[in-house]
From TrEMBL:
UniProt source species: Amycolatopsis vastitatis
Domain (Nudix hydrolase) ranges: 30-230
Alphabetic keyword roster: Hydrolase, Magnesium, Manganese, Metal-binding
Name of protein: NUDIX hydrolase
SUPFAM superfamilies registered for this protein in UniProt: Nudix
Any one GO MF annotation of this record: hydrolase activity, acting on acid anhydrides, in phosphorus-containing anhydrides
Cofactor(s) named in the record: Mn(2+); Mg(2+)
Presence of keyword ATP-binding: no
InterPro entries hit by this protein: NUDIX_hydrolase-like_dom_sf (IPR015797), NUDIX_hydrolase_dom (IPR000086), NUDT19 (IPR039121)
């Protein structure tokens, strides 16, 4: 399905959009980040794992989001055991160098485990079905006591890059005080694993059909940032989780622009 090159969102000021105080100064430098869209087949169609971020957080407080976060410099550790498409493949899809591609993929696996308890790892030819033995390691990853590479090596596990697919590339508007250069991945929930909300960054979480999440946003029951809203609208077009992860994707950078109009902000999303 071909998407238009420009989208316009009209949202209230403060609804997940902040503007920096020094509007005439240079914009903040974006931090590399990874987001993972977890999908599964539900009784009535595709379901997406969503989290409600704790209010008051510096970025996206109170918003409903996919698991994800910033890249740790240790995510680029080349010693990590790896199965699936090599960093060079991810670099070609996301338009970056191999070191960053490795770091982004590792960050995607690490953040997914930290925030949802889903671990995209196993043996070279197998995928974990039971992650309960790694509960302490999950906490240690979240507090940065250990690196992903260190954890996987100690546990004898292999990162399964083949469970991930590239989905999108978003960069936070220049007008915002905190900016992220975020690559979106998609992954199907591994058989036997369960996603939870056991993270300090979320006040709640759960699975929901994308169209229901959008309906909740339209009716004021949740708040969605434009990347989340648009991604959910794309996901609503698919019948099964396999359809989602097998969908061909052309990854282009989407760079929004904020335009204040009284008590609302027009968010213009331009694909580049």
């Amino acid at each position: 399905m071909e998407q238009p090159k420009e989208f316009v969102f009209d949202i209230p000021v403060g609804a997940g959009v902040a503007t920096r105080a020094n509007a005439d100064g240079p914009p903040a430098t974006p931090k590399d980040a990874a987001t993972v869209i977890l999908v599964r087949d539900g009784a009535d169609g595709v379901e997406i794992f969503l989290q409600h971020r704790v209010k008051g957080m510096p970025f996206a407080g109170g918003m409903t989001v996919f698991p994800g976060g910033g890249v740790d410099q240790r995510d680029a550790d080349a010693s990590v055991a790896w199965a699936g498409p090599e960093p060079s493949w991810w670099a070609s899809r996301f338009g970056c160098d191999e070191s960053l591609a490795r770091a982004l993929t590792c960050a995607a696996v690490r953040e997914t485990f930290e925030e949802s308890g889903v671990l995209l790892a196993g043996g070279p030819d197998s995928v974990l079905t039971d992650v309960t033995p790694y509960a302490a390691a999950r906490q240690a990853l979240e507090t940065r006591e250990v690196s992903l590479a260190g954890f996987l090596a100690d546990a004898g596990l292999t990162l399964r890059a083949d469970l991930l697919r590239p989905w999108a590339h978003w960069i936070t508007p220049e007008e915002e005080p905190r900016r992220y250069d975020t690559r979106f991945f998609v992954a199907k929930l591994p058989e036997g694993q369960e996603a939870d909300g056991a993270t300090s960054e979320a006040s709640g979480s759960g699975w929901q059909r994308p169209e229901d999440a959008i309906a909740d946003a339209r009716e004021g029951r949740r708040m969605l940032m434009p990347p989340t809203w648009l991604t959910l609208s794309e996901l609503a077009e698919f019948a099964t989780a396999d359809d989602v992860v097998n969908a061909p994707r052309e990854i282009v950078r989407i760079a929004p622009t904020l335009i204040r109009e009284n008590d609302h902000v027009r968010v213009v999303l331009e694909k580049r």
